[in-house]
Amino acid sequence: MIKLYRHAKKIKLLSCICALLFTLLNLSTAAPIHAASNAVPPILSPNWSGFVATGPLGTFTKSQCTVKVPTVSASGQVSLWCGLGGIPDIVDPQNPVRGEKKAVLVQAGVDACINSRYCIGNCRKNAQCDAAWWEIADALPVQPVKFSKGIKPGDIIHVYMQSNLRNDQTDTFLIENETAPRQETHIIVVNRQGATDNGQSTQINSLSPSTKFPIATDGASVDCVVERATDSLNGTLVPLGNFQSATIAGCDDARVNHLGLEPISSLPTLTPMDLINDNGGNNPLSNNSTQQSNAASQAVVAQPTNLFGRLRDCFSVVQQTPTGPTGNSTLRLMGHLPR
Predict the structure, then answer these.
(1) Considering the entire predicted model, what is its pTM?
(2) What is the residue range of 230's domain?
(3) For all residues of the chain together, what is the average pLDDT?
């Protein structure tokens, strides 16, 4: 049985959206709106925007977030997700790409997509296509979650995950559509023997039968992210759909030996990430000093709007300008396979 530490998510998401409107209109709210005092200068990433916090290996065991499926108004794709681990520089600073230690990103979220060959599911031309998914990078590519009533723009999707919680090499996901009349919940349990969805065995899309990548998170980071996808065949960025603004509420984590979840903004290593047009893209969280030094030549595509204050786990990512597929980034296989 999964023990969840959840907030009043619908109220919080509504409060977050209202706070964003007040911010954009230059109005005041009852609580001060400001960035967390412990946030460091943003990381520049070719495919991620949002927040990340880091720690020693095995620090983080749980993550959750609540998102509203965005409306995409032009061809392209955008993903909203939260996750645990997956930053190679932390796992193996000496050799992050080819070292023996593996960074493992356990993640889940939603895609909104129009006319991209990376859209998940059977999508009609010129129509928005939305899907929920989970993934364990690099062990398993994106795994679609089959919601019987589908997912639509405006739906509120809650995502919770725990990884290696009892040193059992098991990942558990809860992905829930909270919007009537499409309310539906999936609890997915994954280990080396396979996966179950609501207690029933479910097929896994595997890279190959011989895949030996670990499936439990490295636990050295926790993330809440709005992502632009990457074509795994040629490494180029997929066009970013015009989503304008995306809100992530309930961005919470749990550290090892901590029973309850805490707002990501309470962590001393919290770092914002700005998504940029990067013609020489690489790992979104690697070579940070180089990315910072090139900041003057990079155009920000999307960046988090800091609403941390009274709502310490709620923020929005605001799109700056429409953007096309420029530069290179981290690999993604049928979804979200960074690194």
Answers:
(1) 0.84
(2) 9-319
(3) 80
